[in-house]
Design a protein that fits this description.
CATH class: Mainly Beta
Shape: elongated
Radius of gyration: 21 Å
Strand content: over 45%
Distance between the termini: 38 Å
CATH architecture: Beta Barrel
Strand order of the largest sheet: 1-2-3-4-5-6-7-8
Structural class: mainly beta
Number of strands: 8
Number of helices: 1
Order of helices and strands: HEEEEEEEE
Largest sheet: 8 strands, antiparallel, barrel
Amino acid sequence: MQCFKVLLPMFLLTLSSATMAEPYLGLAVGSSSYKVEVAGTGFEDKVTGTKFYGGYAFNKYIATELTYYNFAEASVGGLETSPGSGVFDSAAASMKGFGAYAVAMYPVNKQFNLMLKLGVLSWDVDLSFNNNAGSNSGTDAAYALAASYAFTKEFLATAEWEAFNTDNPEVSLLSVGFRFNFR
């Protein structure tokens, strides 16, 4: 019975916050950091990545979100495959993906919000080494730390750091963008 006394007010609070529920759309651009291994050799690169996302905030604490990512193409020319060999090659990786997240939000005040996102990323990458091409794909865990600042109730600026447990390439995204809440 004690459990019922605790759960009932929480349930009623959730129902009363349904009036706060709102869908949203966002766009962000930032730095995609790649660590790629191709033909037994690796390289790292930072390129401009983009994402487009939509979500649904159930209340001011919980939301769900779907995201499309274009991590852009990371490449290197003049990659020395054997130290001292004088043989140089080129390599590239181009990655895209879709993410699905559960979002926990903490409103610091009326304008500033902190967020933690946990979810999955389904990704595909095209890899090339000299004139040889290949691909890799997978579905892996994804997580993010984010913050938003509301200029109005509908228009927000966002900043996010996202990391993905992909095997090859390893990738993360640091981005800034804007979000529009539909009210």
